[in-house]
Predict the structure.
Amino acid sequence: MAVVFDQTTAPRQSLSLQVNRVSHSYDLGNQQLHVLDNVTISVEAGEFVALLGPSGCGKSTLLRLAAGLEAPSAGELLEDGRAILKPHPDRILVFQEATLFPWLTVHGNVASGLDARGVLREQEYRIGDILKLVRLEAFADAYPHQLSGGMAQRAAIARALVNDPKLLLLDEPFGKLDSLTRLKMQKELLQFWKQVGFTALLVTHDVEEALLLADRVVVFSDRPACIVAEVAVDKPHPRRRDDADLIQLRQTLLDTLGVSYDV
């Protein structure tokens, strides 16, 4: 069944994210590296938003701020109206690399977050359900070096999902996968989002990926990043790559990014 985002029926296991006039800089000794410049974004509970922009412009930094791994130099980030001051299991960041613990099995990797939170004994039963969701139940005893790239990334996503995140922050999670595996993982991520109901914030350099997955695409400028456009993708899922409306939106986004492309 096709699904269109509707904030009035957003699932309870999601949260809203408000980025209010956020700027951020890094101290490089004798100079400041300005990364974000007065960024304001509202993400509704249950929404899927993609962040698109040039490499190194500050998109990943914004995810780190939303995860609570760093504090912004100026402005504030709020979850359901509350200030984000530190990391929390409600907000999970998934990186481009699977970053699995090589000495642990798939089951052990997925269990690691529950163990760190001290709830493994009570919630270990959930690991099997999550492994079934990501289709890795047959590989529970496998080690990371025995997995393909796509399987390793599914294990990393399973490790995030077992913590019941209300906001899943995805930093180019499929950027290092081959094209066919990437297409499969895009479809699977969409299914996870529909089934679990989390809010999703995806950093990507792939215009087509953003249009296929997101309810809305936010376009950033070069560093220091500011928002130059927001494009709503008012199309039900699943979406087709040859859809005329998506092709036109792709051209619009590429034009905004300053990329010449003939569709």
Summary: The CA atoms of residues 92 and 168 lie 5 Å apart.
